[in-house]
Design goal:
Largest sheet of chain A: 5 strands, mixed
Helix content of chain A: 25-40%
Strand content of chain B: 25-35%
Shape of chain B: elongated
Largest interface: A-B, 26 and 19 residues
Strand order of the largest sheet of chain B: 3-1-2-4-5
Strand content of chain A: 25-35%
Oligomer: heterodimer
Radius of gyration of chain A: 17 Å
Structural class of chain A: alpha+beta
Chain lengths: 136, 139
């Protein structure tokens, strides 16, 4: 089994707000992130796939295929977007780094050929990142 | 759904690697430059990984305000700009980055109640890092 990781970067804005909370509770729980005008990050995405090395190609996965899937499923939808307003998953769910990792996993998991998705890692900043392994 | 959240913090500290259980020659052989009697320092980066169910109401494994507050109070303010050899934690132990990593793991494991501690990773330089996941870690 070999693990292969591909990185990509996208820029997006978001804010944290739960309509079930009072304004005070939203501010207390989410702090600065509750500014309804939004704020942005340069997200760095790392997608790790695993599989056996194909004896003919020497590949776990065709990197071009992985790159295309990441672009089509993730970057086209999220790059230079306001996540709360433009990405369907976040119209009714808070776009925290945790939820973004889960959404990206769900977008990718059935789209990969030959290799299996192992981990989605998303950096919101160099000092904060979330890993999702598809665990319930 | 269960996710893992990692947060990185910076602190600076000095240390000298020297074991009372060894002769001067053995200390010099074992620790080399790190045995310099005057000590030396590093910018340490501590990376804490927590896991848990993503809360439906907040979308979070744990609130970063709680984690940042805990880490500042219990770890950063304790070790930042200190000489590790002078601290009670290292009165009987050589302040290698292995031992410092275990020490920080124990502080977070005992004191932080908002999520499960998976791992503490400590970077001594950009070339060296150490990880500790507790004694019974399965991975």
């Amino acid at each position: 089994m070999v693990y292969l990781t591909r990185k990509a970067e996208f820029a997006a804005s978001h804010y944290y707000h739960n309509p079930d909370f009072s304004p005070e509770e939203n501010r207390r729980v989410f702090g600065k992130c509750n500014n309804l005008n939004g704020h942005g990050h340069n997200y760095v995405l790392e997608v790790t796939v695993k599989g056996e090395v194909d004896p003919r190609s020497g590949f776990v996965i065709d990197l071009k295929q992985l790159k295309d899937v990441m672009h089509r499923e993730v970057l086209d939808a999220m790059d230079h977007r306001f996540l709360n307003k433009e990405v369907p998953e976040f119209l009714h769910q808070i776009p925290t780094t945790e939820n973004i990792a889960i959404a990206i996993w769900q977008r990718l998991v059935s789209k990969l050929q030959t290799a299996k998705l192992h981990r989605v890692r998303i950096y919101e900043t160099p000092d904060l990142f979330v890993d999702f392994y598809g665990e319930a | 759904m269960k996710a893992h959240l990692s947060r990185r913090y910076l602190f600076s500290a000095s240390h000298r690697l020297h074991s009372e259980a060894m002769s001067d020659v053995e200390n010099q052989t074992t620790y080399g430059k790190c045995n310099n009697p005057y000590g030396h320092g590093h910018n340490y980066i501590v990376e804490v990984t927590l896991s848990g169910q993503v809360d439906q109401q907040t979308g979070m494994v744990c609130n970063l305000v709680d984690l940042d507050g805990f880490m500042e109070r219990e770890v950063l303010s304790r070790f930042d700009h200190e000489n590790l050899n002078m601290m009670k934690e290292f009165a009987q132990k050589v302040p290698t980055t292995e031992n410092l990593c275990i020490q920080i793991y124990e502080i977070v494991h005992r004191g932080f109640q908002h999520a499960h501690l998976e791992r503490v990773r400590l970077e001594e330089t950009m070339m060296n890092s150490f990880e500790y996941s507790g004694d019974n870690a399965s991975r």
